[in-house]
C-alpha cells in the first residue's frame, strides 16, 4: 500500500492494514512516537484499531530524549 | 545610579519590545522558575532567564562538568572541567557575574520521586533541561499534580522538539507517549551539535517569557519538531488533554508513586549511579582510598578517583556514587563493595 509518511511516498506490504502494523514495519513499535493522520492525533493505544487507506498522509513524530 | 534606573537601563531593549513592556518586565522580575538539568539545554535556558530578569532561578542537576560538555554547554569553561565543579555551581558562578540582581539557587542533587515536589514548590514554571525520559515523566507528573506549567524540550543529533504543557489547558507529555525507550538515541551514543540545543532551548525560553510576562494568549499551541541538518520542520497541534491519560484524565501521576531505584544506569553513558548510601565525608574517603587509587580529584562536592581496574569512582557528598567506565550494574556493585563496602 502506498502511504505518505512524513511527506515522502512509501510503499509498504501490509496484512492487517492498521496503523500499528505501519509503525511496526517502520521499526518504531515501543518507541516514544505519536502519529497524526489527516490532522487527528493518534497515540499508541489507538493504533491497532486504526485502519489505514492508500494515499493516507501520516506524520510520525518521534520524541527526542536528549538534552 | 539608583536601582530602578539601573533596571531600566539593563532591560531597556526588552521593555521596548511592546508585548513585554514595563509591566511584563515587572512580572518577570517577580517570577520564579525551576530549571531541571543544567546540561546543554539547561545552560541556554538559565542564560536566557537570568539575562531577561526572571527574579528567581532555581537550577537542579546531579552531574559535574567534564571536558566533553564544553562543546555545547555554554556556561562552562575549561577551569570548571578541571575543577570537576558541579554543573549547578559552575552555572551559578557564571550567572552571578552576568546578573547579580537575580536570586540564584543551585541545587546539586538527583531529582527523584522523593524530592521532586519540594523542588517545584513555589515556582511559576518548570523548564525541562533533562536528558532522559524517566526524569521527564517524573517532572511531567509532578507539574501536573501541582498545576505548574512544564515546558518540554529535547535535543539529540541535529533533531529537536519542544512543547508547552499547561495543566488543565493543554495535553501533557503522557497524553502523547507512554514509552520511555529512547531507542539508544542519546547524546552519548549518536552525538549532538550545539545549534540544535540553542534553538530548542530558545523555543522553550521564549514560551517561558510569554507565560511569565503575562502574555498567555501568545502561547505556541503546537508540538514542534525539527531537524536542522536535514531541513525538516513540523508543528503538530496539541489538541485537548486525553481522557485516558494517567495524568490529565485519571489523575494517577504514576511516576510520583514509583519506588526510587537504588541502582540507575545512566543511559548511553557507560556509567552506573548507586544511591542510598549515607553522606560521604569526602576528606576521610580521600585519605582511605588514596593508597589504592590514582588521579584523585576532590572538591567540596565530590571525590573522583581512577581504580586499578580501570573504572572511575565518583563519591558525592550527599551519598551518591557513580561508577564510570561500565554499564554493567553487577560490575559496578562489585567495585563499590571492593572499595567502599556496603
Automatic annotation (TrEMBL), chain A:
Short name of one Pfam family: ThiS
Membrane spanning residue stretches: none
Database matches in CDD domains: Ubl_ThiS (cd00565)
Source species, domain of life: Bacteria
Annotated protein name in UniProt: Sulfur carrier protein ThiS
UniProt organism field: Paenibacillus campinasensis
From TrEMBL, chain B:
Domain THIF-type NAD/FAD binding fold, chain residue ranges per copy: 11-247
Stored InterPro entries: ThiF/MoeB/HesA (IPR045886), ThiF_NAD_FAD-bd (IPR000594), Ubiquitin-activating_enz (IPR035985)
A single cellular component GO annotation: cytosol
GO MF terms, alphabetically ordered: nucleotidyltransferase activity; sulfotransferase activity; thiosulfate-cyanide sulfurtransferase activity; ubiquitin-like modifier activating enzyme activity
Family (UniProt): Belongs to the HesA/MoeB/ThiF family.
Name of this protein: Thiamine biosynthesis protein ThiF
Organism annotation: Paenibacillus campinasensis
